[in-house]
Amino acid sequence: MTSAVSAPSATPTSPARGLVCRACGAEYPLAAQHACYECFGPLEVAYDQAALARVTRADIESGPQNIWRYAALLPTGQDPAQRVTLNPGMTPLVAAPALASAIGLQAPLYVKDDSANPTHSFKDRVVSVALTAARGLGFNRFACASTGNLANSVAAHAARVGAPSIVFIPYDLEQGKVITTAVYGGDLVAIEGSYDDVNRLCGELVETDEFEDTAFVNVNVRPFYAEGSKTLGYEVAEQLGWRIPAQVVIPMASGELLTKIDKAFSELVEIGLATAPADGWTVFGAQSEGCNPIATALHRGTDEIIPVKPTGIAKSLNIGDPAAGAYAIEAVRRTGGWMDYANDEEIRAGIRLLAETTGVFAETAGGTTVAVLQKLVAAGKLDPSKETVVYNTGEGLKTIDAVAEQVGPTYQIKPSLRGAREAGLLG
Amino acid sequence: MTSAVSAPSATPTSPARGLVCRACGAEYPLAAQHACYECFGPLEVAYDQAALARVTRADIESGPQNIWRYAALLPTGQDPAQRVTLNPGMTPLVAAPALASAIGLQAPLYVKDDSANPTHSFKDRVVSVALTAARGLGFNRFACASTGNLANSVAAHAARVGAPSIVFIPYDLEQGKVITTAVYGGDLVAIEGSYDDVNRLCGELVETDEFEDTAFVNVNVRPFYAEGSKTLGYEVAEQLGWRIPAQVVIPMASGELLTKIDKAFSELVEIGLATAPADGWTVFGAQSEGCNPIATALHRGTDEIIPVKPTGIAKSLNIGDPAAGAYAIEAVRRTGGWMDYANDEEIRAGIRLLAETTGVFAETAGGTTVAVLQKLVAAGKLDPSKETVVYNTGEGLKTIDAVAEQVGPTYQIKPSLRGAREAGLLG
């Protein structure tokens, strides 16, 4: 070989063996299908356990510093040249001793800060996996129904690879999220309705001839999309030295993120890559008071989700009819956890407490999760003597109005020592 | 040894041997001093070349995925336990073929995207180095004069380590930058004047008894602060496989960033860590038309900077009296480069072009740099056949007003197939 660049090794194949119905167990080949033909239940990716079991820590640790280090545990993206990606992931796991102390936790507390992703939310993970799968399946236009962060991510991914995109959002989103989508130059459709209306319309559009070549990341390629969230479980375990934390607190919109982090922990333990605490891990879910159908069902002792019409400032969590709600309840019950919800004032206070104690500026979803963490400790639901990870899934700059009336300059002065003295800055 | 955790190896010492005057060459010990007692010239950190020469690529490559992998080339931060840091750095070097094609570059073009830092600008690099030095020098309060990004970073760093902060900004900053500072809970002083007024006042405050224990990152510990920018040179070289790119385009406010990237390239070549192109590298500088004192001096054929009163939307570049302007001109002349400036409309267009072709949403400073890159190509100053890196130093979400009137939803429809059909989305 005379080339200075070494030849790539053979591309590993996907460990996914098909799609399986979460409700009835019916199996389907890997394709752009999200609901079971038998029972209309949701489909998820099923893996060849033997393929997963061949993955080693060393394989992962020698991979890139992004989600693709886990490609051997994902349904797609094994070939780097075929990825549609901004290379998200490997976001900081921030030790938060001052936050722990402020809310009465004695054991170590960490913030998994996914605002560090390219478009500053965890959605870059799921979009990278969904669009890589979509390209492999032959789609040439990328779309989504979004509460904002997903729109940012789909539009940015499409721009990166030069593909057309069409993104659907509720018309009353935060300006930060609207502009951050529109700037990438794709089509952006504002829908006069709620996220649930947007989602319903996308479910109809995907069946039309005009959208035949369009992958809606969270509709027709949803099973692939959802798998991207597993990387938020893998990374935390790897960053803790291949240990599963005793407790995790996770925001819930559709509820899918929570189920996939739990699934990631299970996979790592099953294939021997990570160790779990002796009495297992416990999963907690966070919603806002303005949109709490999953937590309310758990509190009622059922797993029947009654849809709500969302209100409140945590817009990225405002899914009133959450697709994976029952599965989130199952994971929380199975692991001995709990769910709670925070009102707008508590969410604002959560954003500020997190910022002041860790230097992490979260969007309203992160404020919600911190506020719920506090409530869970106060109510004795979360054990303050156990290691805990709280997930921040988004960026404060996108929901700046949430705190804009509460914080600002502490002084305004003339540009002189006299001005400083009159303001009391010189004693 | 019975402990499961291996003992840390002995902490390496700093390779810095002192401070040296850039104007007269007078030498001083490492301390909180920024101006020469002999000639009032600016001081910078001088290194023990033998210590730098002992650093290997393997040392760096085995380090953390942040600026501290280069600790052996920095004046401070060798001991991880003593760092005051959000662990910035190792931000993406994004291949930008569509941008290259749009502006007529045939050779590879990359965007070094520093919006990926924790507070989403390159300032996290300089603040981490400055505050780590400041803590080592005994300071217990952290401060800065800022056009916004620096304020965000100092306040977040202080919050991370639980230290008090006091940050000085012009009163007319973008709301995104004001709130993103205030949310961390330190003192925030809005000054009724320009950045240059803010900077002047901080120069006076630092001499008062009340501010004796206060490190102003860009005043009394400025020599350390400035060194943090070297990491933007180191990273690009390492990410290119230990090669210096042929051409770099860098935004200029004080001009210091440009001089330090050039210094980093020189250091890497001198100590044998990176190779330079056969005919060297060329450095280009970008300013806005509303604040172009450095570019104007170069265009006039002098290195005497005539201060200006800044105007225009590129507020993070609005330093009318740039401290390192003459040194930036020296670096550009020595390497055969050039400087240019862009007006507000060109800056807005630069933001949009970068977003549409790469998926990177830059703040106005990034838009300025892309716009100037275009001008340099069009004017034949930048060689389209040579590998080029353009630096994006900040995040579009912080200056969202710059494009808010230009982009938005492309459709607004009712939530129904009929609404979609009426809007022409169904052919």
Please report the first level of CATH classification, the CATH class of the largest domain in chain A. Alpha Beta
Strand order of the largest sheet of chain A: 4-5-13-10-11-12
> Percentage of helical residues of chain A?
25-40%
Uncertain spans of chain A, ≥5 residues at pLDDT below 50? 1-8
Please give the CATH architecture of the largest domain in chain A: 3-Layer(aba) Sandwich
Shape label of chain A: globular
Number of domains of chain A: 2
Q: How far is the first residue's CA from the last residue's CA of chain A?
A: 73 Å
**Rg from Cα of chain A:** 22 Å
Number of helices of chain A: 16
Order of helices and strands of chain A: EEEHHEHEHEHEHEHEHHEHEHHEHHEHEH
Layout: helices, strands, pairs:
Two copies of one chain form a homodimer.
Chain A: E1 16-21, E2 27-28, E3 43-47, H1 49-53, H2 57-61, E4 93-95, H3 97-103, E5 109-113, H4 123-136, E6 141-145, H5 149-161, E7 165-170, H6 175-182, E8 187-191, H7 195-205, E9 214-216, H8 222-227, H9 230-239, E10 247-251, H10 256-270, E11 282-288, H11 293-300, H12 325-334, E12 339-342, H13 344-358, H14 364-378, E13 388-392, H15 401-404, E14 411-413, H16 417-422
Parallel strand pairs in A: 5-13, 6-7, 6-9, 7-8, 10-11, 10-13, 11-12
Antiparallel strand pairs in A: 1-2, 1-3, 4-5
Helix pairs in contact in A: 3-13, 4-5, 5-6, 9-10, 10-12, 11-12, 13-14
